[in-house]
Amino acid sequence: MVAIIDVPGGVQTAAKAATKAGFPLSCDPGVGRLLGVLAAGVPPHGAILELGTGAGVGLAWIVAGLVGRTDVRVLSVELDADLGAVAARQAWPDFVQLESGDALEVVRRPDRWDLIFADAPGGKWYGLDDTIDALLPGGVLLVDDMSPAEFVDDLHRTKTADVRERLLTDARLVAVAMDWSTGIILCTRSQPG
Ligand SMILES: C[S@@+](CC[C@H](N)C(=O)[O-])C[C@H]1O[C@@H](n2cnc3c(N)ncnc32)[C@H](O)[C@@H]1O
User: In this structure, which of 3, 14, 83, 177 has its CB flanked by the most CB atoms within 10 Å?
Assistant: First the structure.
């Protein structure tokens, strides 16, 4: 059980917007808190990418982790324009960029990232290789919803098993599966020797 106290105001706002929009897939508070911790560790002038903005809950946790900082670039991409609009109506710091489009297209750009939260089928179920490529050396990749309780159907079960296998065996990554929140896999891209 994950005890989350003092949920940041931005997260509460995004969670209310998600509820109002009828969007049930926002990240779990345990994952959100971890996202904030990882965001806080991004190096000066670093860059963070979220695949799948949803209603902005995960993004709000990232922003909360960056409190006091303005040096980090944060990009969040969402395929569903209506959901993107829900997130866009919230107040975000200037360093946050919301993009409407396919996560797959974003991870295939030359940009490289210190932290990626892969929370959309694009870049996680499909194009995972491109997402790993988009990590800087030492960059961190977080995926959630990896625990059996989250499997909703056979496709979900198959894709999740595939993601698990690939992340835990990819030679570019040092990775661990953890029974935290909805089940996570946390990976760091190896530094060149
Ligand atoms: C699990 S939800 C994201 C929740 C959000 N990251 C959070 O923490 O609150 C997954 C989102 O990915 C979006 N999505 C699905 N396919 C996508 C794609 N190819 N590119 C970008 N977003 C996509 C869905 O519309 C949905 O909003």
Answer: 14
Q: Give distance in angstroms: CA of 192 to centre of ligand 1.
A: 32
For 14-67, write each residue's pLDDT tens digit. Answer: 999 999 999 999 999 999 999 999 999 999 999 999 999 999 999 999 999 999
**Cβ(128) – ligand 1 distance below 6 Å:** no
Domains (ranges, CATH) in the chain? 28-189 (3.40.50.150)
Index of the ligand 1 atom closest to the CA of residue 57: 9
Global confidence as pTM: 0.96
Q: 102-111: long-range contacts at Cβ-Cβ below 8 A with a sequence spacing of 24 or more?
A: 102/77, 103/51, 103/52, 103/77, 103/79, 103/127, 104/130, 106/49, 106/51, 106/75, 106/77, 107/49, 107/51, 107/131, 107/133, 107/134, 109/134, 111/47, 111/49
